[in-house]
Design goal:
6-stranded mixed beta sheet
């Protein structure tokens, strides 16, 4: 885990433009200028601020190869955090997402007073469901929200401070 940097722009745009990776994500596509602005902002944003999203980079240890990002949102009351993860398709299913989620959860519980972490995924997002099944997250419920005019079945998971 590390900060996002402007030099991550090429792999960042590559996986965010990959239709298979993007289809279950809630973010909009970015052009290069927007991506550079976003990465520049995330490079210096205060981490773990209440009411804010922070995106962190996921990089392979060997060569600091950037392969994805993980978003963390701390609730206004600082009792809950929400996670979202996006990985390049070529590293999905290789335990990198599992490691990233475990690292971020440990970091959140050690550095904040949050009591629970939630993760929400589309009911058809098989890679995300498989990842969450490997973690200590517990499925709590499902919803069928209408997002941008489309019925979206979601699965909710949570992990509580022990």
């Amino acid at each position: 885990m590390r900060r996002l940097y402007k030099q991550d722009v090429v792999p960042f745009l590559a996986y965010r433009r990959d239709a298979d990776v993007a289809k279950f994500q809630g973010w909009d596509a970015m052009n290069e200028a927007e991506a550079l602005d976003f990465l520049d902002h995330m490079e210096s944003v205060a981490l773990l601020s209440a009411g804010q999203w922070t995106q962190l980079g996921i990089a392979l240890r060997e060569a600091d190869t950037f392969v994805g990002d993980i978003g963390v949102h701390i609730s206004d009351d600082e009792n809950e955090a929400e996670l979202e993860i996006t990985l390049s398709r070529d590293v999905q299913g290789k335990s990198i997402g599992f490691e990233a989620v475990e690292m971020v959860c440990a970091w959140l519980f050690s550095q904040t007073k949050i009591r629970r972490i939630v993760a929400i995924t589309h009911a058809q997002n098989k890679p995300a469901l498989a990842l969450l099944a490997r973690t200590p997250f517990q499925r709590t419920h499902g919803t069928n929200e209408v997002i941008d005019g489309v019925a979206t079945p979601e699965r909710w998971f949570e992990r509580r401070r022990s």
